[in-house]
């Protein structure tokens, strides 16, 4: 069991590197996804940016509430940690092909992002088929970090 747990981050990285095509230039919806987002439970602010390989990635940049700071000390997720990797743009505000790591249990899941409007982003993590997963709505963060 411990061996499987050690291999999990490597599997996440391999999946991210396999899905690294760049976003299409000139598509305004692809650019609207970039920026800072508050998770659905207001646990953290995630900064979504384009990574070195051209794929979309998300990094924890700040706990959102003071109460979360105490929880973050127990959590595996630290400021600056990459939790969303390898997302490639499919058009119409949709990103697929990457992985997302759940900070509460450390597991990696396949991921899909869908830009609902400039202020909301649907983030879906799933195993195998997208039918077997969970969706969160992230809200754009406009405050200072």
Relevant terms:
145 residues, alpha+beta, Lipocalin, eight-stranded antiparallel barrel, globular
Short description:
By secondary structure, this protein is an alpha+beta fold. The chain is built from three helices and eight strands; from the N terminus they run ααβββαβββββ. The protein has helices at residues 2-18, 28-32, 66-74; strands at residues 35-38, 44-50, 56-63, 82-91, 94-101, 108-117, 120-126, 133-140.
Stated plainly, the CATH topology is called Lipocalin
Shape: globular
Low-confidence stretches: 1-8, 10-26
Question: CATH architecture, please?
Answer: Beta Barrel
Report the sheet-strand fraction.
Answer: 35-45%
Integer average pLDDT: 78
Total domain count: 1
Roughly how much helix do the residues carry, as a percent range? Answer: 10-25%
Number of strands: 8
Secondary structure tally, helices: 3
Question: Nearest-angstrom radius of gyration?
Answer: 15 Å
Taking the sheet with the most strands, its summary is:
8 strands, antiparallel, barrel
CATH class call: Mainly Beta
Q: How are the strands ordered across the major sheet?
A: 1-2-3-4-5-6-7-8
**Helix and strand succession?**
HHEEEHEEEEE
Backbone structural class: alpha+beta
Explain this structure.
This protein is α+β, with helices and mostly antiparallel strands and 145 residues long. It has a single domain, classed as Lipocalin (Beta Barrel). 21% of the residues lie in helices and 43% in strands. The protein has helices at 2-18, 28-32, 66-74, and strands at residues 35-38, 44-50, 56-63, 82-91, 94-101, 108-117, 120-126, 133-140. Strands 1-2-3-4-5-6-7-8 form an eight-stranded antiparallel barrel. A hairpin with a 2-residue loop joins strand 6 (108-117) and strand 7. The chain is globular. The N and C termini lie far apart (38 Å). The model is unreliable at 1-8 and 10-26 (pLDDT under 50).
